[in-house]
Amino acid sequence: xxxxxxxxxxxxxxxxxxxxxxxxxxxxxxxxxxxxxxxxxxxxxxxxxxxxxxxxxxxxxxxxxxxxxxxxxxx
Amino acid sequence: xxxxxxxxxxxxxxxxxxxxxxxxxxxxxxxxxxxxxxxxxxxxxxxxxxxxxxxxxxxxxxxxxxxxxxxxxxxxxxxxxxxxxxxxxxxxxxxxxxxxxxxxxxxxxxxxxxxxxxxxxxxxxxxxxxxxxxxxxxxxxxxxxxxx
Lengths: 75, 148
Hints:
The complex is a heterodimer of chains A (75) and B (148). Chain A has 75 residues and is mainly alpha-helical. Chain A has helices at 10-16, 22-29, 33-40, 48-57, 62-65; strands spanning 6-8, 66-68.
């Protein structure tokens, strides 16, 4: 799976949720802070369940947290 | 450096230290007289069987000491919790380690097929065991650094 295809807005969403820290997000979704760091940097793609948990933590639809960019397929 | 990466480095160092010290002790206490094949098999099998609990106990002690030292230095409590990413990394690293140990086992059987000594067969087995343990930890370090 190409790493260029999926982007995320977690950093921006954390900012818009009273500067939520990575630790706070990690605790609310039940993972370690390092996993949140890896997801933000695009070094790890979470399971569907964790992706939904993150979206739920921000009270926002999944597609606002993770973006699929099929146009990058052509590259 | 994350706590997981530090733990892997501690694991690599402790594996090398425990195995070297243990086998240095075993080879020092090895009987001087020439042994028959049955005696050699019994000697190496006993040495390997004793290594397993010794290694487990030593690693538990090292990890407790590391946890205490890390908490004192970083003021962060190491909860030892693992999540889906840790488990996926562990699975991939175990796969790599199994490939290496499988190759070592094949090589060890090859030494017997080529009429080499039982000692050489056990040496190859032990070295491949240590190398596969190191491969496990190095793989985990790599996946934590580069991503999966």
